[in-house]
Amino acid sequence: MVEKISTFITEDLEICDLALLIEDTMIIADLHLGYEQYLNREGFMLPSFQFEKILDRIDRIRESSGAENIIINGDLKHEFGRVTYQENRELKRLLDHLEENFNNIILIKGNHDPIIPYISQLKNFKILESLKFQDHLITHGHFIPERIETRTIIIGHEHPCIGLRSGERIEKVKCYLIGPFRGEKLVVMPSFNFVTEGSDILHEAIISPFLKESELSKFRVYAVEDFKVFDFGTFGEVARIMREGG
Q1: Strand pairing partners for 221?
Q2: Angle between helices 85-101 and 50-65 (to 10 degrees)
Q3: Which distant-in-sequence residues (6+ apart) come within 8 Å of 241 by Cβ?
């Protein structure tokens, strides 16, 4: 039996490494399968390594949490307008692996998934624009749905990480952001991608319309590193400390 390692951020929502847990369901976001192939075409020579890391991390979270179901909150693949050879191969392998290990599989469509419905012919699982799950709205985060009728909203899309400066060096750590949005609670997930840590919220522009409408200084920052969760306080506090330390 693997030790359960998780941190509650609300009474029914837990952080377990790069996944959120709601009872027996794990939620991950932004895998971006095929990203190495895209970078290689752009002139960045990068070996294909992240797919095996994705499978391994999914298994570790499943074993730690006991999750029986999985929701992928958008951007399963990377390319916008086509399915590349690498994406097609990895999609099939991933879906086979998920079917072997989870009872239910749901994909929330992201902005990188415009033609993803074709894979519904490969496996029997659900593809949705968004999902109301208990009292949580799970949506990718690249647009704001017209109606929000839950007390918690869970999004991906932003790929948040936090850049911690030490001298001239900046160390990036993936993080969750949790704060108010239109009177409800917004939870922003880090990416389940291992090619890059993500977008540094301290130094880079935000992209999600949810966060553009929010007061980021009030959001709490939870950094994650290999199943360890670190409460950094609010974004405003972190930004102030980094300014004073810089």
Answers
A1: 177
A2: 20
A3: none
Each residue's pLDDT tens digit, 64-86: 999 999 999 988 875 545 666 66
- Cβ–Cβ < 8 Å for 163, 200: yes
d(CA 33, CA 14): 25
Phi-psi region of 233 (alpha: psi -120 to 50; beta: other; left: phi over 0): left
User: How confident is residue 89, by pLDDT bands cut at 50, 70 and 90?
Assistant: confident
Angstrom distance (rounded) from CA 117 to CA 169: 42
Per the DSSP assignment, residues forming a β-bridge with 155 are 188
**pLDDT tens-digit readout, 167-181:** 677 789 999 999 999
Asked if pLDDT for residue 36 goes beyond 70, the answer is: no
User: Which helix (H) or strand (E) segment is 85 a member of?
Assistant: helix 85-101
The pLDDT value given to residue 164: 80
Identity at 46, one-letter amino acid code: L
Tokens of 226: 């290999």
